[in-house]
UniProtKB/TrEMBL annotation:
Pfam families for the chain: CM_2
Signal sequence region: none
Superkingdom of this protein's organism: Bacteria
Presence of keyword Isomerase: yes
Keyword entries, A-Z: Isomerase
Species name: Erythrobacter crassostreae
SMART domains from the UniProt entry: CM_2
Keyword Isomerase part of the UniProt annotation: yes
Domain Chorismate mutase per the UniProt entry, residue ranges: 5-95
GO biological process, one term: chorismate metabolic process
EC number(s) recorded for this UniProt protein: 5.4.99.5
Protein name (Swiss-Prot/TrEMBL): Chorismate mutase
GO molecular function: chorismate mutase activity
């Protein structure tokens, strides 16, 4: 288990923490994309896949979380924009494959 960021005293410890965090992020994204597969299975029409109101809500929630955590909200907004658009593309692909 990696040290907490404030406990790191060497770049080796920092890099180990970053690497562990990246593995955890991929695991969380794997779960998130699992929900996209579920959404593709559940949504009755292809038009229901893209929901601009939901997209805005998800991005705004992430920005608020970033602000509360004291990390750069503009970076989080950019990341979440790509994440949500990638999720929508993934969901479209899964929706189409399920109904072939």
């Amino acid at each position: 288990m990696a040290l907490a960021p404030d406990d790191c005293t060497t770049m080796l410890e920092v890099r180990a923490g970053v690497d562990e965090t990246d593995r955890e992020l991929v695991a969380l994204l794997t779960r998130r994309f699992g929900y996209m597969r579920a959404a593709a299975r559940i949504k009755p029409t292809r038009d229901a896949v893209r929901d601009e109101d939901r997209k805005a809500s998800v991005i705004n929630a992430a920005v608020k979380e970033a602000e509360a955590a004291g990390i750069p909200s503009e970076v989080i907004a950019d990341i979440w924009e790509r994440l949500v658009e990638g999720s929508i593309a993934y969901e479209f692909d899964k929706w189409d494959r399920i109904r072939k």
